[in-house]
Amino acid sequence: MTATIDQMLELLNLDVGGDFFAINITQVQEVRVLDAIRKMPDLPDGWLGVIDFRQSIVPIIDLRDVLSGTATELKPKTIIVVVQVCTADDAKTIGLVVDAVSEVISVDPESVRPPPKIQQSAKKAVQGLFKHDEHIVVILDLAVLIELNDFDGLRAQLADADDV
C-alpha cells in the first residue's frame, strides 16, 4: 500500500562527511551560513559553542564530530541548520553544522527500515533508514541525539547501517 500525500514523511536531506542523514522538516527553523561562533570552556565532544540567533543564544553541534568522531573544518561558508527540538523537559533551539543541505524528501513511511539491532542507547537516536538515489539515508531523532552521551555507540551503530 502506498501512503497518501498527507501520510508521507517530509525530511530534510543532510550531507555530513559524505554520508546522508535526514531530519523532520517540521523541526527546521532556518538554514544559514555559520556566523561568528563564541567558544565556551569545557564543552562535551561535538559541541562547538554558541551563536546569536534571533536575539537568542543557541548552542551549536558539529554533527560530523558527533556522528563520526571527525571534526568539521569551519570555513566562511560553513552551513548550519537551526532546529527546534522538543525533549521530555522542554523545547530547545540548537544549530547543527553540516556539509550541505540538498533537498526536502517525501518518504513513504513503509519504505523506512528499522535500524540494525546493536547498541541500545545509540539505536534510539536512529529512527530508521531508507534508500534515496542509491544512498542509504539515516533518519535522526534529534531529541535523543542531543541528550545522548554515548556518541561512540552511535558511531558504531551508523557504521553498521551500511549493511542495510
UniProtKB/TrEMBL annotation:
Family matches, as InterPro entries: CheW, CheW-like_dom_sf, CheW-lke_dom
Residues of the CheW-like domain: 8-151
Cross-referenced SMART domains: CheW
GO cellular component: cytosol
One BP term from GO: signal transduction
Pfam families cross-referenced by the UniProt entry: CheW
Official protein name in the record: Chemotaxis protein CheW
UniProt lineage: Bacteria, Pseudomonadati, Pseudomonadota, Gammaproteobacteria, Alteromonadales
